[in-house]
Write a structure and sequence with these properties.
- The chain has ten helices and eleven strands.
- By secondary structure, the chain is an alpha+beta fold.
- The strands form two sheets. Strands 1, 2, 3, 4, 6, 7, 9, 10 and 11 form a nine-stranded mixed β-sheet that branches.
- Helix 5 packs across helix 9 and helix 8 packs across helix 10.
- The protein is globular and about 50 Å long.
- The two termini are 31 Å apart.
């Protein structure tokens, strides 16, 4: 985790695509500082009030989840127009960080947990995904469909070749998560050229069950929907989990080549998302 700062975030330029609608819900990039403030308020409610993360005194006082990366990132929004078209209607978000933005901070967020040097050597455009959350009243297929439509449009517009980030499993006891971690390592470990490894001192062994005794179907079913969605896109995981006590999570590194994102989500997102959320 990076230290949280009680600072605002400047609005970012639009990525070249307008708002996409599905009924009263729409997905687009945040265009104002007020919308980014709404994102930070949503993240605080979900991560700290609902999921048990521990805020810094500054974050608790402001009731906002803020870090160094917010001011340089693009923030994808799902807006409920039945509530309002601006910050008052923000019900879902994803944070998107390109290399030029990360350079302004001096690193990618994932570098606090993983050695990301294999991706820095990747001969294509990369994008870090993170800080995904959805308001409790909107955690259904429609909101996730829109978030993935927005990511796919962003990837298509910016010609991104590879996405990566830290995906979280709830809780900080790796033994309680042994089936899920073992399943991911045994079945979805990234090839060496793309394999991120947890930093020394933070590395938690993922191979916690004997493969022959692992109930694959049950372990996969217990994965968070977001991780299952990445796997449906052919995503890989890195070597080693990382405990994040401040956020009450166990994190795994995820790497996804984007050719399947544009194919499966940009063109056929409805069928693929249905499968990913089963």
């Amino acid at each position: 985790m990076t230290a949280q700062k009680p600072t605002g975030a400047a609005p970012r330029d639009q990525a070249g695509f307008g708002e996409m609608r599905a009924g009263h819900l729409g997905v687009r990039l945040a265009a104002t500082a007020a919308e980014i403030d709404a994102v930070q308020a949503l993240r605080f409610r979900v991560f700290f009030e609902e999921m048990g993360a521990t805020p810094t005194p500054a974050a608790a006082a402001r009731r906002r989840d803020v870090d160094d990366f917010d001011a340089v990132a693009d923030h994808l929004l799902v807006v409920d127009h039945a509530i309002g078209p601006g910050p008052e209607g923000v019900v879902g978000t994803y944070r998107l960080i390109q290399p030029a933005a990360a350079a302004r901070v001096g690193r990618f967020y994932s570098a606090d947990e993983y050695d990301i040097s294999p991706l820095l050597a990747f001969p294509g455009r990369i994008l870090e995904l993170g800080r995904s959350c959805v308001d409790a009243g909107y955690r259904g297929r429609a909101t996730m469909q829109l978030l993935w439509r927005g990511i796919a449009a962003y990837v298509f517009h910016h010609q991104i070749d590879l996405m990566f980030g830290c995906a979280s499993l709830a809780g900080t006891d790796p033994d309680a998560l042994a089936p899920e971690l073992s399943y991911l390592y045994e079945n979805h470990l990234a090839p060496p050229a793309l394999r991120l490894r947890a930093l020394p001192g933070r590395y938690v062994e993922m191979r916690r069950c004997e493969p022959a005794k692992l109930d694959l179907a049950r372990a996969r079913a217990q994965l968070p929907p977001l991780i299952k969605g990445y796997l449906r896109l052919g995503g890989f995981v890195g070597d080693g989990a990382v405990i994040d006590p401040a956020f009450n999570t166990t994190d795994v590194a995820v790497v996804v080549k984007t050719d399947l994102v544009t194919d499966k989500y940009y063109r056929h997102y409805e069928r693929q998302l249905r499968d990913a959320l089963d």
